[in-house]
Amino acid sequence: MFKFKQFSICQDRCAMKIGTDSVLFGAWIPVDSAVSKVLDIGAGTGILSLMLAQRNAFIQIMGLEIAADAAEQARENIKNSPFHQRITVENTALQDYKTPESGLFELIVSNPPFFETGKSLASPDEKRAQARNTNTLSQHDLVVHSCRLLAENGSLIVLLPPQESLHFIVKATEFNLRLRHRTNIKTRPTKPVERVLLVFSFDTYFKKSTCKFTEDTLLTRQENGEYTSEYKALTADFYLDF
Hints:
By secondary structure, the protein is of the alpha/beta class. The protein has helices at about 20-30, 45-55, 70-80, 125-130, 140-150, 160-175, 205-210, 230-235, and strands at about 1-5, 10, 35-40, 60-65, 85-90, 105-110, 150-160, 175-185, 195-200, 215-220.
């Protein structure tokens, strides 16, 4: 069990375990007071949904998880949390999820599969391979169905490795989603960027506002391995020892 300050996560039935990526992503995602409905694509353990629910007491969150075991475990984690009344998890693929009658989402978040099938080492664990490879959720499908479910003034936010992010930006542009912000994640000052956090909005959002593209870099550890003060401040509401 992984214990945070306000909730705990069991993950023995989930292929992808909690790591720095997911905690950093959940703490970083912009979720302001204008957001009321959130879609978490690939909910896994429920970690992103729980972190967002902790950060904003007014949002309602729908989590989608294609793996039955992970979906059930996410539901249990959420049931045992203080936020259970505001989070729902459905065991379904994004491609099969119907547009909700209650309206579109102001915020869609996803830590999607990174690797194209056949381009990464095959995982001996079928569930882990499903979570890591795009055979069940391609970049094309993620963009297309996010556009279908995203409100006109909403944001799509994803976490990807640098190379995969370049392909995703091109794909998003094809469907009138424009990159609004990029945060580059480095784990050491001397190491290259390992992950990028991307915020997209529809072209119409840019035309109706004075928003311009912004970019920054977040360093998680110093050269000696110690967490940076920036990373500690970002995740202080979650980690027990920060």
